[in-house]
Amino acid sequence: MKKKNIQKIALIMALSSTFIINGADKAIADESVYKDSTIENPSGEKDTQAKTYEQAKENYDKAKDNLDKEEKNLDQSQKDYENSKEEEKNLEKENKNLEEENKKAKEDLDSTVEDYKSQKEKDLENAKNEKEIAEKDLKEKEEKTNKAKEDLDKADEEEKNASADFEKEKEKNPDAEKSLKDAENKKKEAEEKQVQAQKDLEEKSESLKQEEEKLASLNKDQENLQTKLNTANEELSKIKDEEKKISNEIDEIKKSIGEVSEDSQSYKDLQNKLGEKEQELIKIKENIETSESDKKSIEDKISKLQKDIENLKKENEEFSKKLDDLNKEKSQKEESKTEKENKLNADNTKIENLSKENENLQKTIDEEKKNIENLNNVKTEKENSINGKTAEKTELETNLKSKKEELKKLEESLKTVSEEEKQKAKEQWDKGSVGFFEQNGSTKAVKVFTDLPNNDRAKKIGQEYLAANKNMSPDDSRSLENMKKAIEALKVVNEKRQKDGGIDGRKLSVLKISDFDMAVAQANANYSANKIEHAGIHQPPFENLHWGGSDKGKEAIEGWWDQEKILFDYLRTKGCKSREEMGYYIALHSDEIFKDTGISKPFQQIGHYTNLVDDLMWGQFKFGDSNTSGYAIRPGMYGFVQSLQLNYTKDNEAHSIEEYEKKFNDYCENLQNLMKGIKTPSKEELAKIEQLKKEIADLEKQIADKNSEIEKENKELQAINQNIENKEKANKEKINKLEENKKEIQKLEEEKKALESEINNLTAEINELDAQIANHIASNKEYEKKLKALENDLANTKIELEENDKEIKKLEDSKTKAEEEKNNLQNQILNLNEKRKTLENNLASKEKELEDKKSEENSKNEEINKLNEETNKLNENIENTKKNISDLKNKKDEAAKALAEASEDLKLANELLEQKNQEFESYSMAKENLAKAKRKVKAMKKVFEDLKKSKEDAENNLKLKNENLAKAEADFEIAQNIDVNNPQSYENIEEINKKAKAKENAQIALDKAKENLDRQKEKTSKLKDEFDEAKKRYAMALADFNFAQKDLERFMAVNINLDLDGGDLNGVLGNVLIKGQRNTKYKLPKPMKKGFKFLYWKNGDKIYYPNSEIYLEDNINLKAYWQELKETKEKVQRPKQKIKTKDNQSKIKIESPSTNNPKTGVGNKISIILTSSLSGLLYVLLRKRK
């Protein structure tokens, strides 16, 4: 049975028992069900009580059926919710794993690129070293080849000389060759015999060795078999010991099971201790309630004292405020006084310095005036002679200078751009598209990068979206270079739409561009640069995204249009009539699509194409033809990302692509010219320049004519004028400085007088404030005493509260300890049960283990028998091998004897050959010398040929190394230019392509997993809502059921009045009222009475004997009848517990449980209480375990 169902049964048991004992009108249910639900009678108890038993029974049955139904719904809803949560947890784990894989894939790609670059660098270095070695090797081979050629020529000459000497010896000894030949043949025959004998001996020795090795191997096998046999016997003995041990363990386990049974004394002791601990907890809780009440009184007192202190302080606020104001005013005046005193000291110092400076200036001015006067006399004499000519020339020069300055300013303003203008142009350029949108007045477009719309997607990723567009970077989609590429790509899109048309050749609208759509494309591209994901912040427009190695729109169109149209047309042939149907078909037939079209699973999409042809949700609904568009391109983690935006609305100012491109290009060209320092002049400005140039040329001609006449005199006058001018200028500066100093001194003197007056006034005011503060403080001494008394009282009361809190904490600790001890006792009881169960499991395990050991014993006996058979066979094989060894030893001795004889024959043949060689020594020497010379020539020739070949090999090797070096240099250059964001840079490098593909696949898998997780979270949330709703419905159904059950019980109860007639029933005297249940059987009890024998019960004329059963249909009154007995020994009577009733008669009320069990009767009160307690305990234990 499921854990949840067990819990519900325990709850219903506790609920039923509560109704029986206490007449409860409320039900306790599973906390998880009612946590968020309110349980109440939906229809109102007073208005829905049944009038008859049949009506109550019908209501009860309906409520029971509804409760069963809602319970099933609740169980299913909870199961679905928990399964969904588990799936969500698995998906989160999968996401985490995929993120790690994605990270690892990126690291692998980066590592592979670095390793590749490092390897190519090493290859280049190795190629250089190998080339150097090859060059050195070739040089050595050339030297050796030349030396070998010299040695070969020398050996040829030696051979010719040896041949001539041998021919002379042949003439002297014509029979020498035959005699030597015969001796050599005999030696050869003897050598052959010796070789054969040696071979026979070695063969016999080898055979003997093999047999001996075989014997050793067989002996080793014999030892191994004996070891295995011994081991098997030992294991058999060990198995028998283990069987005995397991049997003993089984006996011990059976004994232990008896010690932890429910009838054991230890189990009963724990039950008794648990009851005592529960009583202790009740007393502790009562003490805590008393302490909490005391705490409330103390806290009320603290609150009152704090309020009194606040009121006292409030009464004193006016005093404090005035005192603060006086102190504040005094501080301000003291600060002002200090400031003015510092200013006064500074002024005195400044006056003194200026006075000294003026004395020196006046002395210098007087001396310069005399010098200027003398120069003016000289100047007057010179001016009289050249005055007229100089005046004319000066006028012409002044006019010329004015015209040139005017021309210069005009040309600089037109041709030379200021650094400030250049900087402004550069800053405007760096703002990218934002600057362009600002110039256009497109506030809505600019806000795309700074503000967020109010939608769920913006709330989810909005901050990440704005962060991606916060700062400009060289790669940013908003850069003007990237924007220019985007406009070109948009032209490709427009051309494709007009050329191919829409679905079934439908004519498509000509796209326009708006600043807003361009801004959305750029912001989205920045967001998606490093993740395979749509932003989805602004909709419309609708977006197509593409990641790849090219920044051209053509590549994106090939994927969005050409490839997806192939799939779109294919799916139409499969009968798909909407985009939704196509999506389902792709999900179910991915492998078939790949087989038929060659389009792999990650690229099986059609949404980009349907968006491009203004049929995004083809076959379902339509938004309208695209009116405006936007495009963005930038590099990122997966190459270049391209974002296309298509907008069917007419909310934004739009331009044709051509108009927009011209406007954009003019903007860019103007900024570029300004940054280069170029400004284009107007026609009016050009005409003015020409006029000024003409006037300047005329003035320059007039001045040239005058210069020849007054050149000498003008030079002399210029020198005098310059001298006077310098002196007057210097003197004028000194005079101006002197006047300025005098004015400054006068100003400082006036300021000094004012400061002294202000300082005196402030001193008097500060003294007055000190007196006011002292008087004010003296007037409020009584306040401090009252405040001190209240604060002391408050402190003492807080101490009292702390003591009370300590007492509460002590009681809480005692409560916690008692609860822990109670839980410990409950756990001990559970542990005993678990221990008993464990022992029973161990007993079954040991019995199984004993059975396995017996089976193992039988297997081991079979193994020992098999080993004995193998030993007998092996012994027979050993005897045969020993016989073979004996035979081979005899054959080896014979072969050794034959070898000795052959060796002796060879010795004799060698002695004969030596004798013949001595007889023809000069002949043999000449022959040997010739042979040596020939061998030397042959050897030298081989050396020369080998070295010649080696030299050719070295030349080929050097050629190869040069080729390798060129290839290594080319590979190194390619490696240095590898960019993981540009697949073209490594398109021919298999290992990097493989890692890049793995990285791409990892990212795709991660994105898909994230989508699955989002969908699963939505599903979980929905199932949770359904689960909460199911809990509420179940709570309502249970409340209805409890009400119907309670209402039914009103009709089910009947009274059984027992008149004991002086007897007692279960220790109770007087009359007894028993609550029974209608339409059930009731077994009549047997009362007792001292000195009497009970006969029967009587109701009117009907007689009922003890232990007989009566059918309860209505209230019944029964009287006991007795027969008096003869006097017997007095017996000890059981104590009787009396309960006084209203009529002062002894009466007991016994309630029976609400059940349909016909065997329930009197005396079950204890069973009812025990049932209630155990069911409550079961509920607590289940809650704790959960």
Automatic annotation (TrEMBL):
Full protein name: Chromosome partition protein Smc
Domain of life: Bacteria
PANTHER family on file: CILIA AND FLAGELLA-ASSOCIATED PROTEIN 58-RELATED (PTHR32083)
Gene: smc_2
Record keywords: Coiled coil, Signal
Bias (Basic and acidic residues) ranges: 32-152, 160-223, 235-257, 270-299, 379-398, 812-823, 833-873, 1140-1150
Record-linked SUPFAM superfamilies: Tropomyosin
Region (Disordered): 32-299, 311-363, 376-398, 812-875, 1133-1158
Organism: Anaerococcus vaginalis
Polar residues bias spans: 224-234
Signal peptide (from-to): 1-23
